């Protein structure tokens, strides 16, 4: 089971390539000076007429799950030295296994599987579901990702409305502080995809952008005051938010975004922009809850 203090990195692994997720978990554990807890879920066996066959098949699946956990744990122990590594094997659906354990973790790390497998349509169903419901921030890491000292020091945060979410900005500032880096706060705006060019002439766009920057700067001032040592750059641009953030991800070490807060247990907790960036980002993406749970 996951020890609660100090909170560990929770690394969820499947039966596919885990190189990117493992590399990020190692880097984050070193930054936070904490251990890593690895979780793997063995799918439940629900087919077959003979119950004894199901038991045998289930035992074989658990053995394979244990082998996967052992291999990842050995690699983590080699990389982390004295920092603790623990494992946990679940039997059943993967999303409840990870979200149920996440309340005791510092952050959840999942690898986003490679796009373009022959005959396979990527859905990101596990990543999206965990990011939508986890009790702590979730980082989705592209397959094959490796640390890059030049890029890792830049943390990009996507700003939604002018009413800035302090939790999203704070998360970005904390990540940049751990990396000895800087934050780029990005806000993209459009009037309407179909009529935007008709409504905003160039001069009007400039005026609108200048006023928007003034509003954002005023909203950000009390949030940024708490961590004055982190360099912050504010970028406002006319365009689609997902396009702008994916473009920024090419030179960043992390993109931080806020999910939606829904009053019901179902529904689009992530939003279309977050889902698009999770799918297309060139760097890891951290999804945080922009509204503290106690105030929801």
Overview features:
single chain; 20% strand; alpha/beta; 2 domains; 10 strands; Rossmann fold; 10 helices; 296 residues
The CATH homologous superfamily of the largest domain is called HUPs
CATH hierarchy class name of the largest domain: Alpha Beta
**Mean pLDDT over the residues:** 84
Q: How does the overall form come out from the CA principal axes?
A: elongated
Largest sheet: 10 strands, mixed
Question: Distance N terminus to C terminus?
Answer: 29 Å
Beta-strand segment tally: 10
Alpha plus pi helix count: 10
**CATH architecture level-2 label of the largest domain:** 3-Layer(aba) Sandwich
Strand content: 15-25%
Could you characterize the architecture of this molecule?
The protein has 296 residues and is of the alpha/beta class. It folds into two domains: 9-142, Rossmann fold (3-Layer(aba) Sandwich); 149-295, HUPs (Rossmann fold, 3-Layer(aba) Sandwich), CATH 3.40.50.620. 42% of the residues lie in helices and 20% in strands. The chain has helices at 19-32, 51-80, 94-102, 125-133, 149-152, 166-179, 196-199, 202-224, 241-249, 272-280; strands at 9-12, 36-42, 85-91, 107-112, 138-142, 154-158, 182-189, 232-238, 254-258, 285-288. The model is unreliable at 52-56 and 118-123 (pLDDT under 50).
């Amino acid at each position: 089971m996951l020890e609660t203090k100090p909170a560990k990195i929770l690394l969820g692994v499947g039966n596919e390539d885990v190189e990117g997720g493992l590399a990020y978990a190692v880097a984050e554990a070193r930054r936070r000076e904490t251990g890593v807890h690895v979780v793997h879920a063995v799918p439940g066996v629900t087919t077959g007429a003979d119950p004894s066959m199901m038991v045998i098949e289930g035992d074989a699946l658990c053995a394979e799950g244990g082998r996967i956990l052992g291999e990842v744990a050995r690699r983590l122990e080699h990389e982390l030295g004295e920092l603790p590594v623990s494992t946990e094997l679940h039997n059943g659906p993967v999303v409840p296994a990870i979200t149920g354990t996440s309340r005791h973790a510092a952050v959840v790390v999942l690898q986003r599987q490679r796009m373009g497998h022959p005959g396979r349509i990527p859905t990101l169903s596990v990543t999206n579901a965990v990011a939508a419901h986890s009790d702590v921030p979730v980082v989705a890491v592209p397959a094959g990702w490796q640390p890059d000292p030049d890029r890792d020091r830049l943390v990009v945060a996507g700003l939604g409305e002018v009413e800035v979410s302090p939790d999203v900005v704070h998360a970005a500032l904390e990540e940049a502080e751990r990396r000895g880096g800087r934050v780029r706060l990005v806000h993209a705006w459009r009037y309407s995809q179909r009529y935007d060019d008709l409504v905003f002439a160039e001069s009007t766009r400039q005026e609108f952008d200048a006023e928007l920057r003034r509003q954002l700067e005023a909203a950000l001032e009390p949030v940024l005051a708490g961590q004055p040592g982190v360099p912050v750059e504010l970028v406002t641009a006319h365009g689609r938010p997902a396009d702008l953030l994916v473009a920024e991800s090419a030179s960043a070490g992390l993109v931080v975004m806020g999910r939606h807060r829904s009053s019901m247990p179902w529904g689009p907790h992530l939003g279309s922009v977050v889902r698009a960036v999770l799918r297309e980002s060139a760097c890891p993406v951290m999804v945080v809850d922009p509204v503290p749970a106690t105030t929801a």
